[in-house]
Every structure is written in structure tokens, then in C-alpha cells.
Amino acid sequence: MSRIGKLPVSLPTGVSAELLPGNVVKVKGPHGEMSQKVDPAITVTIEDNQIKFARPTDLPRHRSMHGLYRALVHNMVVGVSEQFTIRQELVGVGYRVALSGNILVFSLGYSHEIQLMLPSEVKAEVPDVRKGENPVLVLKSCDKQLIGEVAAKIRSFRRPEPYKGKGIKFVGEQLRRKAGKTAAAK
After folding, report:
1. What is the pLDDT of residues 124-157, one digit of tens each?
2. Are residues 57 and 104 in the same domain?
3. For a 10 Å CB count at each end of the chain, is N or C smaller?
């Protein structure tokens, strides 16, 4: 039995789930609603504020699908009840981010500004920065996969470099630093 797949997904207060035709699980909560189509081989039941998953056999394909769909539905429940948050820090002299509507405008040391239009499901905040601190970008969404893709796209604009640590990094991330060149001793 899958260790992840056999765990039921419990629904917190304010979150409702329903099973639609075609083996589609729809979850609705205070931060939105999401749906996920589940493989027809996996049996989904909703009872007593819990969503349970069962598989027909122990074939490798069924075992992998069992844990996968349980994890996807669990992420949906967490997303619509609490939302996922990713905080990114811009480290570097003159690195800035501004928010105008749903468009992020980055100034990252290039000769031009970089603009990124956010999907409607992702909300962004740029808190005020005190002098001497790095700008921080806060992304929030109920869709874990989408917010991760947006954060990866933003990070790709200026990856952290190993010598000075300049670039876009996640808050709390530990970067592997390298020693720079040293002058030859004579």
C-alpha cells in the first residue's frame, strides 16, 4: 500500500469538496476553487469531511497514480484554505521590483527593464523597503504548481551568482559561495 496514497485528505472548516462525473474532484474554499481530473483507475470517495483514494491493484502504474492524485488533491485543499506563499529577495545594488496592476517591472542591472504579466490566479505584493535592506517580492496563490512556475520564471531573470551572491533568491535560501581569485604570493 502507498504510504502517501492511503492517508485520507481531511477537509478543514470552510472547505467543501464534490466528485463530478468523469472522476473530477472539485474543491471550493475561502481563497477560490480548483478541480483535478483523477485517473479512472483510482477510486475516489468523499465521506465524513475526508477524501479517500483507493487503487485496484499493486501494479507500479497504479501505485504511482495512487500517491500522485492524493498529493495533488491535498495541495488543492491547502491552497483554497490557506494559500501558498513564496517570498523572493532581490540582492544587488539598484535591483528593484515595482507592481503596476498585474504587471511586475524589474530593474536588474540590465540596459532595459524586464516586465512580467502575472496570471490572474497569482497575486503579488511588494512591501516597502527600509534603507539598507533588499527588496522583497511576495507571491500568493491557491495553485501550488502555478506559483512555483511563476517564481522559477522570475528567478531565471537573474540567477544568484556564487561569488557575490547577487541575483534573485528565495528568502531564507542558503547559497553555495565560491572564493574569488587570489593574487600570486611573491
Report:
1. 999 988 888 899 999 999 999 999 999 999 999 9
2. no
3. C
In a shared domain, residues 61 and 96: no
Instruction: Please state, in angstroms and rounded to a whole number, the distance separating the CA atoms of residues 113 and 105.
Output: 7
CATH of the domain at 31: 3.90.930.12
Decide: pTM greater than 0.90: no
Q: Using one digit for the tens of pLDDT, what is the confidence trace for 8-28?
A: 999 999 999 999 999 999 999
Regarding whether 42 and 96 lie in a shared domain, the answer is no
For residue 182, is it within any domain?
no
Number of domains in the chain: 2
